[in-house]
Each structure stands twice: as structure tokens, then as C-alpha cells.
Amino acid sequence: MEEFQEEESELKEDEDCSLASDSGVPVFKLLQKWVPKAAHYFDKEHYHYAGHQITIQESIENYGAVVWPGALALCQYLESNQQEINLKDKRVLEIGAGTGLVSIVASILGAYVIATDLPEVLDNLEFNLSKNTRNLNVRKPEVRKLVWGKNLNEDFPKSTHCYDFIVATDVVYHHTALDALLATMTYLCQPGTVLLWANKFRFSTDYKFLDRVCSIFNITQLADFPESNVKLFIGTIREN
Ligand SMILES: C[S@@+](CC[C@H](N)C(=O)[O-])C[C@H]1O[C@@H](n2cnc3c(N)ncnc32)[C@H](O)[C@@H]1O
Prior knowledge:
two-stranded antiparallel ribbon, alpha/beta, seven-stranded mixed sheet, 25% helix, 6 helices, Rossmann fold, 27% strand
């Protein structure tokens, strides 16, 4: 995995955020530091969301084994905007769940969660979900394989697999699966399903992907995290 060069931001707990940008989109600072790890294979990171300490086991074996900044942004937003984005008793499916931080926070906030990712990520994902929810009075999140664009009709038939929210954080980065990713978002979002997508914008191709998303979904930007270049979007599928 590439090494990342990002400076730790010196953020204090009470600096929670929200200034309006010129465009009117609320601007936030990430309250949890994103510190990429490349020096050791396994590490445990501690987070605090929705009144709970969350411990995440990370590794550098694959992209899904560290917490990415989009996950921190979405967790922070969900924690701070529980009335606007009410996850209680909602069916939430996360794609590219990685370490599972977002799925854990969604579970704590009352959702029925299915966390999905590539097969090689699922053991660590299962470990983190189980470790962080087993002693809480929350619904046990489910872990399932979902490879973008593969076997969706068979594994997630629309007639029985309908979700209130599809969540995705930092699923857009330098990879070749963007067509399959967009097809998966489109497939999973039935009328009424809300897409929550937070992503660090790094490359011009990220903005091109955003344009493609906007052609299929009615998209609104919910928040901007300029220090980490993360943008958070909410959307629903366009109905023709
Ligand atoms: C950059 S990581 C983000 C992980 C996590 N969402 C976060 O924000 O911390 C991208 C995630 O997408 C998953 N992913 C990449 N390609 C995929 C594919 N073709 N099908 C399913 N998941 C994929 C990776 O395994 C990884 O967990």
C-alpha cells in the first residue's frame, strides 16, 4: 500500500466546527485525527462516538484494514445529526466497510446493519464488529461478502433486500472498479433508499465519478471537511 503523507491535525474536542462555506455547505473539522499507519502490521485505534469507546483493529494488509478519513467524517456527522439522519430501527447496508467503524457507529445509533466488503477483509471486519457491539444493547451487525458488481441479483435480490440507507466511505480512490462501484450503488438504492457517501477527494477522476453519481442520483452535499478534503453527500436514486 502506498505511504501517505498527511500531517496530524491538532484538533481539540471543543472545536466542533460548523462554519458555512461560500456555497452554504456546512464546513467541519474532523475531531478525530487521521494518522495513516505504514510502520507496523497491526495496530489498535481508539475512537469515541455516540457515547461509546470503539476499538478498531487495523492492519496494512489491504485497503480495507485501516480507517479512512471519510469514515471519520461520516461517523462524526451521524453522531452530531441524529435527528436529521435518524438511524433508529433503519436497515443500513455499508459497502466497502473496511474496518467497520461506520457500521459500528450505525449499530450504536440503533440501525440493523449489514457490513459488506471483499472476502479478504471480512475476518477483521467481523472481529471489529463483534468486539465493539457484543456487550452493548444493540442489534448484532451482520457481515457479508459483497464484491461490487458481482452476483448482486443472486446475493441481494431486490424483492427481499431493501434498505433505508446505503452507506459508503472512501470507496472512491485510485482503483479500477469505479464502474462496478457505481452499478452497485445504483442497484442497491431502490426508490426511498438514501445514499450516504463520504469521500476524500484526491484526483480529478474523483470529481468525474461525482458527476456520474449526480447523473443517476439526486445529490446534495451535506458537509465539507476541508482540512482532510472530505465531502459528505446524501442522495436518492433519480426516478424517470
Ligand atoms: C479505502 S477503503 C475504505 C474503507 C472504509 N470504508 C473506511 O472509510 O475506512 C476501500 C474499501 O473498499 C473495499 N473495496 C475495494 N474494491 C472493492 C470491490 N471491488 N468490491 C467490494 N469492496 C471493495 C476495500 O476492501 C476497502 O474496504
